[in-house]
Design a protein that fits this description.
Elements: E1 2-8, E2 11-20, E3 26-28, E4 34-36, E5 42-52, E6 55-58, H1 60-66, H2 74-89
Antiparallel strand pairs: 1-2, 2-5, 3-4, 5-6
Length: 96
């Protein structure tokens, strides 16, 4: 689990999430046997806190009730984009 702080809808949010990058397809194994398909990227928000100095207010239940079934809600998309941008700035390469 990791955390990131983002600006969303004019508010500062602290978002806890689990992220696993996609894995590539393997066409063939070293011995020539058929390979296996890769896995999809997985991104799940586990907790959301509204940051109001000096307090943190847990709004996970509220945000969860507004979340889409397939992770296409605005908060998930904004958080995923911020995480990927941060990883890119840090030089993260999931292929390594």
């Amino acid at each position: 689990m990791a955390t990131i702080t983002i600006d969303f809808g004019g508010q500062r949010l602290r978002v806890e999430y689990d992220y696993s990058p996609a894995t590539p397809d393997v066409m063939y194994l070293r011995n020539g046997d058929p390979g296996y398909p890769g896995g999809p990227e997985e991104f799940y928000i586990t907790k959301v806190e509204l940051l109001i100095t000096p307090k943190r207010i847990d709004i996970s239940e509220l945000m969860g009730s507004m979340a889409g079934e397939d992770g296409d809600d605005p908060l998930t998309l904004a958080t995923r984009e911020a995480v990927l941008r941060e990883q890119e700035e840090d030089g993260y390469d999931p292929e390594d």
